[in-house]
Design a protein that fits this description.
Rossmann fold
Length: 373
């Protein structure tokens, strides 16, 4: 079977990394072949080419410009005619709303893959839900709970995101720490992701400020702003770090192509979310890398992180977060214990072969149902 995945491709985050995993795992998922179409030829397109998939480029699409939408739909229809996919999978509300109708016109099943909490108050999610799909895939039970009731009788399946990380040796880890200027005896707390307030950067900074008298830790904040509001937010975080007396302890690392290697070089992965996430890809990457996870008891994190690999804290509770991080910085044995449980837990929830097998079964069932009908 062949699936054609459709996405915008103009930013870079969790969805983009899922698509890269699909590209990298093609050899291990013979039951399902993946093709990808993007509106924008940007960072994601380049990384997909490096992973072995040449994406189809539809051309820039802007929701307020009907001509760009019509042009992209025509381009997508030509790709469908040329490649004959068995199903069209639209990732996110934007792709589903603007480009999903091409599937019905071509007579193939339409799948809407929802990667985050459904927000009925937002026009994009609301209008996307009004476009019929043959199947909705949610990346967690939490995401499904937000979608249920908005997609009518459309069947909904939960498939955790596939996550894969390269193994990092102890020697590579120490080399990366030296590159980053980590001193002997210093512990690294790390967070990686989009520069968005919901990720809880401010909460983490305020918690670490209570540990500023200690000289044995640094924080790596990995991620670069991609939109003007994210630039403003990053500037706010820089000022806050300075105001809290942490300017020399907090390193805003920016955009990196070696995020998983940096995670493996850290001692604690901390993400103090103040809003629930649909999945939490970097949490799983930390687990697979053998790094203990500290995150908020919100959203899908409660499905992914258990007491074998991490600690869930009340969202927004700076005191508890400070205590938990401080205890892990003090206790190497605790760090090793939680770190050692991460790979097996990460494998259970996000093993790429298993999750892509789930996807193949979902598409097979969908096609079987259409044939019976």
């Amino acid at each position: 079977m062949r699936c054609l995945h459709v996405y915008s491709g103009n930013l870079f985050g969790g969805v983009e990394r899922v698509l890269i995993t699909l590209a990298g795992e093609r050899a291990n998922t013979r039951a399902l072949d993946h093709d990808i179409a993007l509106a924008f030829d940007g960072d994601l397109a380049g990384r997909l080419r490096a992973a072995g998939i040449t994406p189809h480029i539809l051309g820039p699409v802007h929701a307020r410009n009907p001509l760009t939408i019509a042009r992209a739909r025509r381009a997508l229809a030509r790709i469908i005619a040329a490649t004959a996919p068995d199903a069209l999978i639209c990732h996110g509300a934007w792709a589903h709303l603007l480009l999903g109708s091409t599937a019905s016109r071509a007579g193939i099943p339409l799948v809407w893959w929802v990667h985050g909490a459904f927000n009925a108050a937002h026009w994009l999610d609301r209008f996307a839900a009004s476009r019929p799909a043959d199947l909705v895939i949610c990346n967690s039970a939490f995401t499904r709970s937000t979608v249920t009731g908005h997609v009518g009788s459309t069947p909904v399946r939960v498939i955790f995101n596939p996550v894969s990380v390269a193994e990092v040796s102890g020697r590579q880890r120490e080399h990366r720490r030296r590159q980053m200027g980590v001193r002997p005896g210093e512990k690294v707390v790390m967070q990686a992701g989009r520069m968005e307030p919901s990720k809880g950067h401010e909460i983490l900074l305020r918690a670490l400020a209570r540990l500023r008298d200690r000289t044995d830790w640094v924080l790596w904040e990995v991620g670069a702003p991609q939109r003007p509001r994210e630039v403003r937010y990053l500037n706010t975080l820089r000022r806050l770090a300075a105001d809290l007396g942490l300017a020399d302890r907090v390193h805003f690392v920016g955009r990196r192509d070696d995020v998983t290697e940096l995670i493996a070089a850290a001692d604690v992965y901390a993400q103090a979310n103040i809003a629930p996430e649909g999945f939490g890809l970097t949490l799983v990457e930390a687990m697979l890398s053998g790094v203990p996870v500290v995150t908020s008891a919100l959203g899908a994190a409660q499905e992914l992180v258990d007491d074998t690999c991490g600690i869930l804290v009340p969202p927004g509770d700076i005191s508890v977060l400070t205590t938990v991080i401080g205890r892990l910085l003090d206790d190497e044995r605790a760090r090793r214990h939680l770190g050692s449980g991460g790979p097996s837990r990460g494998y259970i929830v996000a093993n790429p072969a298993a999750r892509l097998h789930d996807l193949a079964i979902a598409v097979e069932d969908l096609m079987r149902g259409r044939r019976v009908a």
